[in-house]
């Protein structure tokens, strides 16, 4: 198996976790299967860079003296707000030469400035998706997924999603067992699928200020198969149904029904991704009651049936 070189671009204001997260994944894979990855870092002039959190990183080399890498990884951070034209110029010239081009968080902005995302589907940190779409209309920006792979170019959302993308690359390069071993060592999930939303149901909604409503939010998450009618939830919050529905929407930004729908969909997706449970069992465990009800919910929200959704993450082995 040929060794894959990974070059990580460094610059002042880089987000340290955008660098260290993927680097730890590739280093872990190298420890698992020696001879598979060689990771190097480089900056424009080879001088130490200061991360957005104040850490100092010492590059291995200057970008000019690095050979063409198999994987070129561009992290994000505050330094992407006003991109250095020398850096985007280097990326414009050398990015297409890499076998695989990867960005983490707002590293996508650097790739965009270099013209490397035109005509492609891409993502970045949710807070910068509007800017990316506005400044670069030739890019199909999708703010929802935690990472997107479009040919040899992969872009990921905020910070820790770079770890998810790196694990996916290791699984592709080596195998699932290698990626699983690395994930276990790092104590992270293997692996959040790329089209998992940047926000879970709990993050998409605001946290209610009043304790009874916060307790109801938590109870919904822990009991997706329970009685989650407005009447039942209102009783748990010790409010009238009308008062509860109004207060819940005011404090969380969505209706109780919408919140329940998101929690149930997220629960079902995780079971489809991570278990071998049947669709009927998952539909009951997620509060849908019947496979048909879950199928309608999946088609409406995701444009795919539960069976089709599962096949995306567990494709049949090639013969």
UniProtKB/TrEMBL annotation:
Domain HTH araC/xylS-type: 214-312
Identification of the protein by name: GlxA family transcriptional regulator
UniProt organism field: Streptomyces plumbiresistens
SMART domains: HTH_ARAC
A Pfam family that the UniProt record links to this protein: DJ-1_PfpI
Keywords, alphabetical: Transcription, Transcription regulation
Region (Disordered): 67-88
């Amino acid at each position: 198996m040929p060794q894959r070189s990974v070059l990580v671009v460094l610059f002042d204001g880089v987000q340290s976790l955008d660098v260290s997260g993927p680097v730890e994944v590739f280093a872990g894979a190298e420890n698992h299967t020696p001879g598979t990855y060689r990771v190097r870092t480089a900056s424009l002039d080879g001088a130490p860079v200061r991360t957005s959190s104040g850490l100092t990183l010492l590059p291995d080399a200057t970008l000019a003296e690095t050979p063409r890498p198999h994987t070129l990884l561009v992290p994000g951070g505050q330094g992407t707000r006003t991109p250095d034209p020398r850096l985007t110029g280097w990326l414009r010239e050398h990015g297409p030469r890499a076998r695989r081009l990867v960005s983490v968080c707002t590293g996508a902005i650097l790739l965009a400035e270099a013209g490397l995302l035109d005509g492609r589907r891409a993502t970045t940190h949710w807070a910068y998706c509007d800017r990316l779409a506005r400044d670069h209309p030739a890019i199909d920006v999708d703010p929802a997924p935690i990472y997107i792979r479009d040919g040899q170019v992969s872009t990921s959302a905020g910070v820790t999603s770079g770890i998810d993308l790196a694990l996916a690359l290791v699984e592709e390069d080596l195998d699932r067992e290698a990626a699983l071993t690395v994930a276990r060592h790092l104590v992270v999930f293997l692996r959040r699928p790329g089209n998992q939303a940047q926000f879970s149901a709990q993050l998409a909604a605001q946290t209610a200020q009043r304790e009874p409503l916060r307790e109801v939010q938590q109870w919904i998450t822990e009991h997706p198969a329970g009685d989650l009618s407005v009447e039942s939830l209102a009783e748990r919050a010790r409010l009238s149904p009308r008062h509860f529905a109004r207060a819940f929407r005011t404090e969380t930004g969505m209706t109780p029904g919408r919140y329940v729908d998101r929690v149930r969909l997220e629960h079902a997706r995780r079971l489809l991704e991570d278990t071998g449970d049947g669709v009927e069992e998952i539909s009951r465990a997620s509060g849908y009651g019947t496979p048909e009800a879950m199928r309608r919910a999946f088609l409406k929200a995701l444009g795919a049936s539960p069976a089709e959704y599962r096949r995306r993450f567990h494709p049949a082995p090639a013969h």
